[in-house]
Amino acid sequence: MKRQPFRTRLLPISSACAAFAAGLLLAGCGDDAAKPATTAATSSTPLAADDALPPRDALPDCSRVEATLGGVLSGWKLVDESGPWENPGQSGYGVDCIWWSPHLQSANDLDKLQGASLMVRINVTPQMQSEADVRAIGWVIDDPAVNALGGYLTVVGGQLAFDAPLGPVPPEVVVGKVSVSVTRSGVMLVNSTDEGSAFTHRDAVDAAVAVHRLIRK
Q1: How many CB atoms lie within 10 A of CB 28?
Q2: pLDDT digits (tens, 9 = 90+) for 168-179
Q3: Phi and psi, residue 124, nearest 5°
Q4: How far is CA 213 from CA 7, 23, 65, in A?
Q5: Is residue 186 part of a domain?
Q6: DSSP assigned state of 200
């Protein structure tokens, strides 16, 4: 199993820092590609949040996670080390799925500087913060698709422009003890890239909702 230092090394710096910052809170102290399906938004049956941790084999693999992204990753490559991970010290576990964009796969270093990565992280921890605690600091955003799950949507700072391109500070969808986030970043903290920029915060939230529904099947 992978350990957190490896995942931090593998990810772009900005993506790793954003995921780490959000994780501290919640753990408790392309082109006009197809967009993710919004099945949660049209569901009429709310799902009750469950405080029980899902079994490890209930978590989807990266091929199933990729299907929730609606084809936005055409031409992107899944990193070999993607997959399940554990954090025995905190009894936490999850799945990281990381894809490299076409530029990032190039043998040309200048091309790589224009590359992007996208990560979907499933994080399961008994120390997950409650909605009331996160709402108390103003970091919860009401969203019908997430409410239908019986969960809550959170982002560092408490503000989210749904139509803006997804960046390195990810919105997270939390249901019970499980959070799902989608993050896009360039190779370097200072780098800006257009690869995957058509993927918005709205798309990220809808993809996270779809992943939660995979877990709860």
Answers
A1: 13
A2: 889 999 999 999
A3: -115, 125
A4: 25, 21, 11
A5: yes
A6: B
Which run of H or of E encompasses 215? helix 201-215
Residue 131 lies in a domain: yes
Number of domains in the chain: 1
Q: 196 and 35 in contact (C-beta within 8 Å)?
A: no
User: What is the predicted pLDDT for the residue at 111?
Assistant: 67
Backbone angles phi, psi at 213, to 5 degrees: -70, -30
| Encoded tokens for 83 | 């997959």
Token pair of 198, please?
A: 């058509």
Mapped onto helix, strand or coil, the DSSP state of residue 55 is coil
pLDDT above 70 covers what percent of the chain? 68
pLDDT, tens digit (0-9, with 9 covering 90-100), for 43-69? 334 444 456 899 999 999 999 999 999
What are the DSSP calls for 73-136, one per residue? TTT-EE-TT-EEEEEGGGTEEEEEEEEE-TGGG-S-HHHHTT-EEEEEEEEE-TTPPPHHHHHH
Question: Is residue 189 a part of any domain in this protein?
Answer: yes
Which of 11, 25, 156, 217 is closest to 98 using CA atoms?
11
Residue 96 domain boundaries: 4-29+54-215
